[in-house]
Amino acid sequence: MKDGPDIARIAALIGDPARANMLGALMTGKALTATELAHEAGITPQTASSHLRKLLEGGLVRLRGQGRHRYYALSGADVAATLESLMGLAAGRGHLRTRTGPRDAALRKARVCYNHLAGERGVMLYRSMITKKLLIETDDDVGLTPMGERFADAFGIDLAALRAKRAPLCRPCLDWSAREHHLAGSLGRAMLSRMESLGWLDRQPESRVIRFTAKGEAAFDARFSA
Amino acid sequence: MKDGPDIARIAALIGDPARANMLGALMTGKALTATELAHEAGITPQTASSHLRKLLEGGLVRLRGQGRHRYYALSGADVAATLESLMGLAAGRGHLRTRTGPRDAALRKARVCYNHLAGERGVMLYRSMITKKLLIETDDDVGLTPMGERFADAFGIDLAALRAKRAPLCRPCLDWSAREHHLAGSLGRAMLSRMESLGWLDRQPESRVIRFTAKGEAAFDARFSA
DNA sequence: TCCATGTTTCGACTATTGTCGAAGTATGAA
DNA sequence: TTCATACTTCGACAATAGTCGAAACATGGA
């Protein structure tokens, strides 16, 4: 069986605990420096440097040098999707962390997935926008309906600016905890950022956990509960 | 970053070349014996036994003992989906096999993906069934329309028997080479098997490659080219 | 210029683990 | 029972690769 792409190479790349932790930290979508990633993984900067070079050569991360800092980020949404897929397998097989702390429950509720909202609330948002015909699923993709465009505008999102970028506006992204889709793409990112500036939620530093404020929870439910 | 499921564990499991080859061989959906898998991976039976135990403990494969043979198979469609996702990453990053033989082109054209048709022809089939309104995509899933039921019946597929099983009838499955969906689920399996018994195609032993016969190619194009 | 900080390279150590030979267990057939 | 086949366990070897200390390199600020 020497057919197809070399799957073992990238799987081995993800398979080291230190590198997996780094990739997990990058799932927030933010770019992090080498030392920050070393701290996240619990290793020294030298070791982290070696790992990051391998991830870079493997094409899993992208590098943006800025002065004496070197910012690493996931190289694309497809990497994030594959990582989520692996998390789904691990979770489904009962291979959770040795210690499942209180953060685990918080993660299932709401978390950042490559800069957009994931977890129960992310799925809730997606489902609500589908049933309200703000989003429509076509073939493999999702798209904004005319009604959805008006909604986004009223929600305070500059669609024209988003469309100017190359990145796709809407993307479905599979959720490892809920096993349903949530909204990714530049619109997904913009909506999370908008909710943050509205004071609906707090993003915990150095973690994927998202905590909704009381006000935010009420406002979210009012709009997206059905 | 100690959040979420333990992704490194399963990634490391897939990350060994011998195990990756075994999993690749199991992507046909057929159950294989330990020695067959050893041969596929190019290792001795002793080594294969050790690997298979790890895959079993990791929950990636399922074991069905039968006499003195032990048949291994992928534990579920989610494993196959994750493997395809990894193949997509590897292919997209240019990390193909060192030697891309002629089988690679054949794989892109038509192959078995966990017992259903994948590759260009698989995507073709899926797209055709969508545009002809035989299938309809709803939310995350796909379903058969009334017109689709009549079509399946005329094609010689026993829908009632398929529905009696627990497995979902239709499932979209992302294709690593075409980056589009093709049809999985028990209907996908049944259609591939029906095409085989119609003499449209030959499944090569011990490989994922599917070769269409001249007659089968013509018949397939006549029905699913648009 | 000098110093502090972020990052990488080098070298050596260690642990892990994939590998196979040899022997042992289990199943089925004669 | 005896033999053959399928598979596993055990033990030992070797190679890979993750780890860190020490030192070098690069950048920015004073």
TrEMBL record, chains A, B:
<feature type="domain" description="HTH arsR-type">
    <location>
        <begin position="1"/>
        <end position="94"/>
    </location>
</feature>
<dbReference type="InterPro" id="IPR036388">
    <property type="entry name" value="WH-like_DNA-bd_sf"/>
</dbReference>
<dbReference type="InterPro" id="IPR011991">
    <property type="entry name" value="ArsR-like_HTH"/>
</dbReference>
<dbReference type="Pfam" id="PF12840">
    <property type="entry name" value="HTH_20"/>
</dbReference>
<dbReference type="InterPro" id="IPR052543">
    <property type="entry name" value="HTH_Metal-responsive_Reg"/>
</dbReference>
<dbReference type="InterPro" id="IPR036390">
    <property type="entry name" value="WH_DNA-bd_sf"/>
</dbReference>
<dbReference type="InterPro" id="IPR001845">
    <property type="entry name" value="HTH_ArsR_DNA-bd_dom"/>
</dbReference>
<protein>
    <submittedName>
        <fullName>Winged helix-turn-helix domain-containing protein</fullName>
    </submittedName>
</protein>
